[in-house]
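Write out the bound-state structure for BIS(adenosine)-5'-pentaphosphate.
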Amino acid sequence: MNLIFLGPPGAGKGTVAQKITDDMDIVQISTGDLLRGAVKEGTELGIKAKEYMDKGKLVPDELVIGLLKDRISKEDCKNGFILDGFPRTIPQAEALDNSDVEIDKVVNFNVPDELVIHRITGRRICKECNAVYNIYPDCDPNPKEKGKCDKCSGELYQRDDDREEVVMKRLKQYKEQTEPLVDYYKEKGILANIKADNPLDEIVEDTKKAVKS
Ligand code: AP5
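---
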């Protein structure tokens, strides 16, 4: 099964994807993680991408499309995948349509803006395995031990683009460039809407039901 997770920054796309991939025996592909990996390795693409990411802007389509196509051609994607953060523009969606990949469902996570900002400023990520946590008690999941990943004991860090002023810019970019994809996929008849300001366990169950329907 091939899925797309759509929604603003902080909607919970990555958190929900990490919770359902094992059950469904599919892989999570986050273009944000792929880009941050390239930045960390200091590749030519990473150096170019960092300029955009630090400002809360989208990385140019031609760079991201190449990266994504290369990733989905890998053996571990044969059983299916969740695209988390791709496509983010109409040209990216068209590039996907023009590839030989069939998308079964697009899950759209809906959350109010103020919750996005709260969730993102409290987010912490494992340096080793990219697992997502949150330091605020009203967010989910909290790490069992402060600053450490529950799964691999890796150190938790805050993303450079998770500062409030950058989050506001990312939200603006989302509304201008990515939100039109909601109608794009609605017209194709494969969109499922999820109320993403509910408790995490409920959202995970709603998502599992939505992708099976
Ligand atoms: P990317 O890494 O994709 O960031 P994003 O889309 O902005 O999404 P986030 O990772 O911020 O949010 P999420 O929905 O995954 O939320 P999460 O699950 O972590 O992209 C980063 C940058 O890379 C972009 O700005 C752009 O520059 C570039 N980029 C990436 N893809 C691109 C593309 N295709 N084209 C061009 N440029 C691209 O949850 C957030 C927090 O809330 C977590 O701490 C979590 O623990 C908590 N939480 C989640 N759900 C709940 C819940 N139900 N209850 C309580 N807490 C919750």
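---
The domain at 2-111+178-212 is CATH 3.40.50.300 (Rossmann fold).
Residues 7, 9-15, 30-32, 35, 52-53, 56-59, 64, 85-86, 88, 92, 119-120, 122-123, 132-134, 139-141, 161, 170, 200, 203 surround BIS(adenosine)-5'-pentaphosphate (CB under 6 Å).
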